[in-house]
Amino acid sequence: MKQILVTGGTGYIGSHTAVELQNAGFEVIIVDNLSNSSIEVLDGIEEISGIRPVFEQFDLIDKEKVDAFFGKYPNIEAIIHFAAFKAVGESVALPLKYYRNNLVSLVNILDAMDQFNVPGIVFSSSCTVYGQPESLPVTENAPILKANSPYGNSKQISEEIIQDTLVACPKLNAIALRYFNPVGAHPTAIIGELPLGVPQNLVPFITQTAAGLRNQLSIFGSDYDTPDGTAIRDYIHVVDLAKAHVVAVKRLVESKNKKPFEVFNLGTGNGLSVLEVVDAFERVSGQKLNYKIVDRRPGDVEKVYADTTFANEELGWKAESTLDDILASAWKWEKKIRGIE
Ligand code: UD1
Known about the structure:
The chain has helices at residues 12-23, 41-49, 63-72, 88-93, 95-116, 150-168, 202-210, 238-253, 274-285, 309-315, 323-338; strands at 3-7, 27-31, 54-56, 76-81, 120-126, 173-179, 181-183, 217-220, 232-233, 235-237, 261-266, 272-273, 291-294. The chain is an alpha/beta fold. The termini are far apart.
């Protein structure tokens, strides 16, 4: 059985990916420092897939621990590197926290891949690297614009660090997956997103408002150049996203990649406005949502959604869930963790 290291594997996207990897027959080893996730997530992964992944708790910015880890597990064939901070606003206030964590951990991992002969890595990147694209839907060839936040910049720099490393170490291969807006939870509601404190992202804020934890959703801006004036994004079910990682890992371990560094957009291709998401949530959940329109949020782009042709054709992968599936799963999860019938 092929061993795959999943860094950040107890986190939101990591945990869903661990489930799909195990369902596909891979042996999963999770490394996480639990800075933004909980150890109980391992129980959830085990409950869904029937297998408890191997777990090691340490910080990937500690080079000695990273090297000791790879010495202990010499049979790892590929890495999926999720472990990173991702709060845009916090990254503006604490840029060095973001650069240290997101970049040093990547450097340590790439160094160890070379030293311990681990040939492939799948990197969690983001559509944030495109900024506000000039033409939509955005393809992988769109220019990388100056990042709006240290978080976004850390993703751009990470992709560059990977590419530079591949030039110097031709035995290594990498796939960067640029996520659009991952949302929803596992359909069993056994795992899902667990934001710490007040959620910054739209869907967890919606479900927490419906569950009574938040009084009101603020919709950031209604004067965008979009049909209803609210901003447009491409919301993708986290399980669809997780399945794309399985395809990417197989591509690396079976050496089906055509270039040492490949980039894929992971989205649905459908742009949806904030109000469309709110309407759909009200319909799917039967809950009336208390919301008000407020000013735009600094740093937000007006509209971004993916051209998924390359991922669909080259990976043979396509997002399958509907918006209703996504929101139903997010609501089922919120109700479960809040004990709502
Ligand atoms: C952003 C980044 C993404 C990053 C993610 C992590 C971009 C294009 N995307 O996603 O790369 O991984 O943050 O946090 O930079 N909204 C409200 N009210 C709320 C929350 C959000 O109206 O309370 C609106 C936002 O203004 C936006 C949409 O909902 O138009 C989605 O916002 P959010 O879920 O925070 O994701 P992004 O900002 O798109």
